């Protein structure tokens, strides 16, 4: 019986370990034209505080680091957009269950029929549910 209990505990650890490693949410902070931060945390406040520290470490003033997005642990896509007038910005779409879903969201955001005022639009980064960037810069 003890052998079976150990086996059951080991099986439970192997099965649930990937879920325990995930953060509860991902926050994105940006200081336009300066810096940004992406961080995971137990809640929105913790994740934003961490992302803001990254943004400041990148050279921006704390008050310039604006909260852009927060989602529960999920795949996230960062989309760069530039208008024909030259203004540019990033939009963040999170909450996706897979990288393929995040990629589809990036393509939809850059749909030329919908975004006729843009001269450039592309997905520039994907973050996994643990907040790890997937593309090398």
Record field, number of beta strands: 6
The DSSP helix count reads 3
Strands of the widest sheet, in order across it, are 2-1-3
| Beta-strand content bin | 35-45%
> What letter string, H or E per element, gives the SSE order?
HEEHEEEHE
Report the uncertain regions: 2-22
Overall pLDDT = 84
Structural class: alpha+beta
What is the radius of gyration?
19 Å
- Largest sheet descriptor: 3 strands, antiparallel
Q: Span between N and C termini?
A: 53 Å
Q: Bin the helical content.
A: 25-40%
Overall 3D form: globular
How is this structure best described in words?
The chain is an alpha+beta fold and 137 residues long. Helix content is 33%, strand content 36%. The chain has helices at 2-21, 44-57, 99-109; strands at 25-31, 35-41, 66-72, 75-83, 88-96, 118-127. It has a three-stranded antiparallel beta sheet. It has a three-stranded antiparallel beta sheet with strand order 5-4-6, covered by helices on one side. The longest helix is centred in the N-terminal third of the chain and has 20 residues, at 2-21. The protein is globular, with a radius of gyration of 19 Å. The chain starts with a helix and ends in a 10-residue tail after the last strand. Mean pLDDT is 84; it is low at 2-22.
